[in-house]
Amino acid sequence: MNHVVSIINQKGGVGKTTSTINLGCAFANLGQKILIIDLDPQGNASTGVGIENNDRDNSIYALLNDRNNLQHYVKTTKIKNLDIICANVELSGFETEVAKDKNRAFILKEILGSLKEKNQYNQILIDCPPSLSLLTVMALVASNSVIVPLQTEFFALEGLTQLLKTINRIKSSLNKSLEVEGIVLTMFDKRNRLCSQVEDEARKFFSEQVYQTMIPRNIRISEAPSHGLPVLVYDKYCAGSIAYEKLALEIIDKQKKFNFAA
Question: Tens digits of per-residue pLDDT, 65-76?
């Protein structure tokens, strides 16, 4: 219960927020109670589940300043079992505001401590910003594990190596229990030879850390956010929805096998 997972990649446009939304929806459809924390100032995870993110008084920015009353900031979505704490552009100034706070890396962890006591959620998914900023560090410190969306493109593996080094630094200094739960290949096009080459390299170097399920390049996945819906709601029978449903089952099986949710 209350297993905290950061969905992270310092590179933008790799399917990070899309994966957060749709995995959250897939887990919820399987009966798990899910909380998404939108920790990206762009607020795309919020609008992606149909929640307006322009209320600065009921956002993750306000919660990080309040550091109490977490339930006040949780919003229910139209999807059963799926809640969210929204983000907006106000969050972009938070790092500067807490620059002198020596314990700033632990702010989110301390806030989530109240949820751990209540066992209210099966999983808490944190949509991290596409940068290795304080917000990302806070997410990693608060998390049990990490899932990395990896776009099947030429420079992806180089960026992944740097990201894993950062995760290991956080683990050694700030969160010794942090683990890389898995790497999910996104925007995969089986007609593209380069995609297959990236897949082969990823599986060669990272072995079982790479999920068997890959997320295809799919127009319905791209369309869904403009309707304020996860693709599993927008078109539950499309290839993208089927892939995320399959990935959710694979992740749950792996969590049980390796006891990530302990």
Answer: 999 889 999 999
Q: Annotate 41-59 with three-state secondary structure.
A: CCCHHHHHCCCCCCCHHHC
**Are the C-beta atoms of 255 and 261 separated by less than 8 Å?**
yes
Using CB atoms within 10 A of its CB, is residue 20 exposed (0-12), middle (13-18) or buried (19+)? buried
The domain in which residue 21 lies consists of 3-258
Which bin fits 31, alpha (ψ -120 to 50), beta or left (φ > 0)?
left
Q: What is the model's pLDDT at position 262?
A: 44
Q: Which residues of the chain have pLDDT under 50?
A: 262
Please check whether residue 143 is in contact with residue 126, taking contact to mean a CB–CB distance below 8 angstroms: yes
| Alpha-carbon gap, residue 218 to 49, rounded angstroms | 19
State the DSSP H helix or E strand holding residue 150, giving kind and residue range, or none if neither.
Answer: strand 145-151
d(C-alpha 26, C-alpha 28), whole Å: 5
Question: Looking at residue 18, which CATH number applies to its domain?
Answer: 3.40.50.300
Q: Rounded to the nearest 5°, which phi and psi values hold at 148?
A: -110, 115
For residues 19 and 184, the answer to whether their CB atoms sit within 8 Å is yes
Q: How many domains, in total, are found in the chain? A: 1
Query: Would you state the structure tokens that stand for residue 144, as one six-digit string?
Result: 């049990």
In the chain, the N- to C-terminal Cα span, in Å, equals: 8
